Amino acid sequence: MSTYQLSYSLWQVIFYIKNDGPSTLVDISNQYQVEKPTITRRVQRLEELNIVKQIPGKDRREKIIQLTELGEEIYKECRKKITELEHRVMEGIDKEDQMIMFQTLPKVQANIMKREGSNIEQSKIVDK
Prior knowledge:
The chain is mainly alpha-helical. The protein is built from five helices and three strands. Keywords: DNA-binding, Transcription, Transcription regulation.
């Protein structure tokens, strides 16, 4: 992804738009549980790279983001490389073990997110 000046956080935005279609900044920030200004900065960077563009929404205040033609091409190329990497790292692991891992990892991620959320709440209490 570095070939296209993409970080993982920028890839997340591209991935979301590709899979969910044109989306608002709020949709994307809710998906990744990130503040809207953070998503705004990511989208601005993707606009600078001509990967996404804004399209008119029902409401002028609502920004709807979609991939450009270049964004579609970059998505396909990166997705291909990611799939190749996934195949390499899964080499020698049978399908049953892979399925167990795919079911377990989201649970691990949810636990991490819960813990980070509770740490943030605890730090707010301590700061008071």
